[in-house]
Write a structure and sequence with these properties.
flat; 25% helix; three-stranded mixed β-sheet
């Protein structure tokens, strides 16, 4: 999800931001997925800044915002 989609949800900010050098995998064997789901269930707006370049030295790309 992009920042534009975040704004479509009426979010002007997020509460929690995960920054990782890995891709996001929405599966219960990955900690970021579990933490994101638990925080969302508690009412927090959760975002992830992912490494979309494939280069572990460079974290960048679009802000991925998760939410139900």
């Amino acid at each position: 999800m992009s920042v534009a989609e975040m704004r479509e949800r009426g979010w002007d900010a997020i509460d929690v931001l995960f920054i990782t050098g890995d891709a996001y995998v929405d599966h219960p064997s990955f900690a970021m997925a579990i933490l994101g789901r638990v925080l969302e269930a508690a009412g927090f707006r959760v975002g992830s800044l992912l490494n979309r370049t494939g280069d572990p030295a460079r974290i960048g790309g679009a802000l991925a915002v998760r939410g139900c």
